[in-house]
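From the shared-data thread, chain only:
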Amino acid sequence: GGEEVSGATPQWRLLDAAEEEAYKQRVQERNAARNAPPPLEKGLLLRFEGAGADTDREQVSALCGEWGTVDFVDYSRGDASGTVRFRSPADAKAALDGLGGGAELGGEATAWRQVEGEEEEAYVAAVREKMAARKGGGKGG
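Structure, as tokens:
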């Protein structure tokens, strides 16, 4: 006798080889869909150059946040440059228009530009690789 579940007693059996293979395939497809990065629109990325040494990610986010919604700041303290990903192309454009005059970061005037074309594609591909590596996408042997 088995335990009652939701008013019924389940009947258990082992899957045959074909059923097991089909089940594994469904699980793999579901996991792949779940782990697939969302498609990134074009025109979300701005690059800055010339930040002061004491600039941090929070300062970059706060500055850019005055112009639109910031999704991610790709920057490490001490670097002179970094990339900001905005929620929408309109937010990125508003920020570029607002920051283009050389806003200060860490006491230094920074130059801002839109990341586009091949540079944008290469950046997005690199980010996807990092995300896949972080999720433990590697298969050990």
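Helices lie at 17-35, 57-65, 89-99, 117-134.
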